[in-house]
Amino acid sequence: MVATTADSAEKIIIFDTTLRDGEQVPGSQLNTLEKIEVAKALEELGVDVIEAGFPISSPGDFKSVVEISKVVSNPVISALTRAKEKDIDVAAEALKYAKKGRIHTGIGTSPYHIYSKFNSTPEQILERAVQMVKYARKYVDDVEFFAEDAGRSDNAFLAQVVEAVIAAGATVINLPDTTGYCTPYEYGEKIRYLKENVANVDRAVLSAHCHNDLGMATANALAGIMNGIRQVECTINGIGERAGNTSLEEIVMILKCRKDIPAYTDIDTTKILKTSRLVSNLMRMPVQANKAIVGRNAFAHSSGIHQDGVLKNRENYEIIDPADIGVTDSSIVLTARSGRAALDHHLRRLGYNLSHAELDVAYSKFLVVADAQKSVSDDDLRNLAGTEMVEDARRIKLDYLQVVCGKDAIPMATVRLLIDGEACVATASGNGPIDASINAVRQLITQKVTLEEFLIQAFTRGTDDVGKVHIQVANKGKVFYGFSANTDIITASVNAYIDAVSKVI
Ligand SMILES: CC(=O)SCCNC(=O)CCNC(=O)[C@H](O)C(C)(C)COP(=O)(O)OP(=O)(O)OC[C@H]1O[C@@H](n2cnc3c(N)ncnc32)[C@H](O)[C@@H]1OP(=O)(O)O
Ligand SMILES: CC(C)C(=O)C(=O)O
Ligand SMILES: [Mg+2]
């Protein structure tokens, strides 16, 4: 177990493998310039080790490791190899500009790998592991050994291999749950077993490299930490082979958030979101909306009860301060499930300080807009707070509107206006539904105006969007403007016309 007092908190080394295991995602390959951009962002984020690539795999990957080694100063640069001399020679060559270079070599230790991948025996695998660690040590002092599929390896054999490669000079021992098979209890027990059964185990740093096939990659890394792991191999956004790897942001924020776990990292968490977005964009891998820490909804509150609770005290519903990972936008999302507290919060943010009565009016209008759309934007709110409430105070109100239109139909509109509270009805035709509706209104409001401009615009989103109508009318040489917004553009047009003409009257 890790020690239990805050004073003795253990530093966990963050080994980022976004550019190696993360880059094994189909369709997410990066060119050298893109890899350099990610490597620089990882350095800024404060990772301790960057796994820059697998140099023997292609000339492009070789070049990337060379170029990253030239531009990155603080983190160790790690290059992956198989347990093969040629791989190690090429990795050493690629690392020649690295200020701190690490060769990461290894071989499978599970029965699957020993027998059906290598057609070998445990003795031969052990021998090869030792030879390759010694070979890598000829080039660098920092050699990490991976026991591939450690998760499904026999603990006694694994302990034998780990002990032998430490004796051969491995400075870091990576214990991958390559297939994401282990449960956290099992993985934790495996690490504890090695701590208790390997001679000189403390000469090397034990590293967790967990995959997410059963959704347990982060939990397994954490179980490892609780039992003696001091390095976690992880990726931004949890990307990686198949279901991905332990996600950097998750393991880092667990250690930051849970003060009862005596372990910490040197990551500048305020750069997490920025780095996540960069990797997502460059790798063309969208982050799922509900992804822990970096998903679009990770700090979004959309239901009234939660919003009210968060506004009273953020910690009622948030265990992480969004600012800690670099989130700056509001987390209170307005939807039809929001209440007055959330609406008032956003109206005040936009400079509208409404009385209780005004807020009630705005809230009922807000619910109509929110039901018609998926979410309510600042523009929608400005309309509600500005125009819609002015509409309420008008002498002339649109009370009913029916239009008939379509291909080969004669556009007809029936409107009922409340003029000083009195209902007046008219029907008219036109060359389209808007023209017919305005003609019907003109029968009821006889004020002479010239329509000088009529503009309909959608906001920025889809077909469920709000249409904005701007109207300009002239009367006796003076210009008057009308505006309205509605998901129904004909209603918006009639209201905008009434708005303009009401000003003339
Ligand atoms: C768990 C992981 O994520 S491991 C890293 C996975 N990443 C990659 O594989 C990407 C880079 N890989 C590549 O570019 C290529 O596979 C190369 C260059 C490494 C090898 O290419 P090829 O020579 O054509 O071999 P191929 O890919 O068909 O097969 C892999 C070979 O490596 C061997 N091998 C696999 N792992 C190891 C290991 N750790 N140590 C030694 N040999 C290994 C396999 O047994 C197989 O050899 P065999 O054909 O003699 O049985
Ligand atoms: C190469 C090793 C470290 C690996 O990625 C794995 O076992 O998952
Ligand atoms: Mg892996």
UniProtKB/TrEMBL annotation:
Residues 12-273 form the Pyruvate carboxyltransferase domain. It is an enzyme of class 2 (transferase). Gene3D superfamilies: 1.10.238.260, 3.30.160.270, Aldolase class I. The keyword Flavoprotein does not apply. Mn(2+) binds at D21, H209, H211, N245. One of its GO terms (molecular function) is acetyl-CoA C-acetyltransferase activity. One of its GO terms (biological process) is L-leucine biosynthetic process. InterPro entries: 2-IPM_HCS-like, 2-isopropylmalate_synth_dimer, AIPM/Hcit_synth_CS, Aldolase_TIM, LeuA/HCS_post-cat, LeuA_allosteric_dom_sf, LeuA_bact_synth, PYR_CT. Residues 397-505 are annotated as: Regulatory domain. Keywords: Acyltransferase, Amino-acid biosynthesis, Branched-chain amino acid biosynthesis, Cytoplasm, Leucine biosynthesis, Manganese, Metal-binding, Transferase. Its cofactor is Mn(2+). Its EC number is 2.3.3.13. SMART domains: LeuA_dimer (SM00917). It catalyses: 3-methyl-2-oxobutanoate + acetyl-CoA + H2O = (2S)-2-isopropylmalate + CoA + H(+). Pathway: Amino-acid biosynthesis; L-leucine biosynthesis; L-leucine from 3-methyl-2-oxobutanoate: step 1/4. GO terms for cellular component: cytoplasm. The keyword Transferase applies. Belongs to the alpha-IPM synthase/homocitrate synthase family. LeuA type 1 subfamily. PANTHER family: 2-ISOPROPYLMALATE SYNTHASE 1, CHLOROPLASTIC-RELATED, HOMOCITRATE SYNTHASE-RELATED. Catalyzes the condensation of the acetyl group of acetyl-CoA with 3-methyl-2-oxobutanoate (2-ketoisovalerate) to form 3-carboxy-3-hydroxy-4-methylpentanoate (2-isopropylmalate). Homodimer. This is 2-isopropylmalate synthase. The gene is leuA.
